Amino acid sequence: MEEHALSEIIRILKSPEVVVNINKLAEEHKEIKREDLVKAMKNLNEAWSYLYQAEQRKIVKMLVDSVEVQENGIKLNMNPDGFDHLFMELAA
Asked: What is the pLDDT confidence band of residue 44, given thresholds at 50, 70 and 90?
C-alpha cells in the first residue's frame, strides 16, 4: 500500500494541477522566481528514489492529509498547503 501511495504522490507532482499551483505561488511570492519553483519540483521528482525513507515520509506527511482504503485501492486526500510549503522550502 505504501508503494502505491508513493507512486500516486509522484504522479501528482508531475500533474498539470501542480504547475498551476506553482504559477499561483510565483504570483503570491514575488521574491521567488517561477523558474526556481519549477526547478525545485523537477529536482524532487529526479531525487525521490535517492532520498532516505525518513525524508520521503516527511514529504508524504506534508503532502497527504488522509488515506482512504477503498475496494479498488486507496484514495489519497492531499493537503494543498503542504504543496505550497514543500515548494517554498525546496526553492529557498
From this structure: confident
Within 10 A of 73 (CB to CB), how many other CB atoms are there?
A: 11
Say what percent of the chain tops pLDDT 90: 1
Split at pLDDT 50, 70, 90, the class of 26 is confident
All 3 cell numbers of residue 23? Answer: 504559477
The domain locations on the chain are: 2-91
Q: What is the dihedral of CA 32, 11, 66, 88, to 10 degrees?
A: -10
Q: How far is CA 23 from CA 8, 29, 46, 85, in A?
A: 22, 10, 21, 14
DSSP designation for 33: -
Q: What residues contact 15, with CB distance under 8 A and at least 6 apart?
A: none
